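Sequence only, no structure available. Ideas?
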Amino acid sequence: MAFKTPHVLLVSFSVEIGAEATTNVMQIETDLHLNARHPSYDAAAVERLVRAARDYLAGNADQVTQIRLVSNRSGQT
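Reply:
I predicted one. C-alpha cells follow.
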C-alpha cells in the first residue's frame, strides 16, 4: 500500500550501511518547511506528517527502522 497523506510529494526507500549496522530508511519529500525558525513553519502539520509516517510503518514496512523527512522548500528565515 502506498503512503499517501497531505504534504507528501515523494516517498523512497534506502539502505544506510555503517560499520556496525545496516538501517532501512523511508525518506519522505515534503512541501512543508522543516526549519522551525522559518515564518511558514507549521509545527502541527509536521507533527501530523510524522504521526502518519509512523502509523504507516507500523502496519506496512517491517524492516524500515528510520524515517527521514526532506523539505523541498528553502530553510532560510
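The beta strands are 8-17, 22-30, 64-71.
Hope that gets you unstuck.
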